[in-house]
Amino acid sequence: MTSKPVTASQKLPREPVDAAIIVASSFSRAFENNCKESASAVSRRLKEFPQISLQAGLTPALTFYASKLDKEKRWLIFIDALKAVTGGQAGSMLCDETTGEGEGYPHALAILLAYIAERAGCNINALLDYKQVKRGFVQCMEVVRRGGLVLEKIALAYASEVKKLFAALYPTE
Questions:
Q1: Contact present, 130 and 51 (Cβ < 8 Å)
Q2: What span, in angstroms and rounded, lies between the C-alpha atoms of 87 and 37?
Q3: For the chain, what are the domain ranges?
Q4: Terminal-to-terminal C-alpha distance of the chain
Q5: DSSP string spanning the chain?
Q6: CA–CA separation, 61 vs 91, rounded Å?
Q7: Apex CA 136: angle with CA 131 and CA 141, to 5°?
Q8: CA 75 to each of CA 43, 44, 153: distance values in angstroms, whole numbers, following the listed order
């Protein structure tokens, strides 16, 4: 028996602020229903992203966050977080690595890519499939890179709004 691949069931609005509200709400609902911890590390990573993106560029900022997914477990956390924010059923790993120093990258990357990948035209389903996630990420970065300044501008607007929402929901010390 083969399992059906998970698909992104929720299309986000094109407007970055509206999309950020939906993503924050979806993450918060899944996180608070399943997890006892805070998501302060996630909030911290989202706070850092706009500045990194302005300094290095959108694709390098995203690949920097992906470089922090240095264990297979972190890719599974990324997939669970992406499922949570795209309308899918998040798994049990959503709650992992959300509070400590150096943590929060898988969740933040998922929150950022939920909108950026969709706007760029990436294959979201490849990012939701464990067998394809790494290859899907690289292919998505190729597409994001071609999106140019227009994509960078809307991605930055989205990242800035997500940063504010998560700062309110999951404050850092």
A1: no
A2: 22
A3: 16-168
A4: 48
A5: -PPPPP----PPPSSHHHHHHHHHHHHHHHHHHH-SS--HHHHHHHHHHHHHHHHH-HHHHHHHHHHT--SHHHHHHHHHHHHHHTTS---GGGGSSSSSTT--HHHHHHHHHHHHHHHHT--HHHHT-TTTHHHHHHHHHHHHHHTHHHHHHHHHHHHHHHHHHHHHHS---
A6: 26
A7: 155
A8: 19, 19, 27
Q: The domain at 16-168 falls in which architecture?
A: Orthogonal Bundle (1.10)
Angle CA 65–48–162, to nearest 5: 95
- DSSP string for 76-113: HHHHHHHHHHTTS---GGGGSSSSSTT--HHHHHHHHH
Q: State pLDDT tens for residues 91-116.
A: 788 888 887 777 999 999 999 999 99
Which residue has tokens 């995203």?
Answer: 62
Cα(81)–Cα(94) distance, integer angstroms: 6
Could you report the per-residue pLDDT of 111-129, keeping only the tens digit for each? 999 999 999 999 999 999 9
Is residue 94 within 8 Å of residue 81, measured between CB atoms?
yes
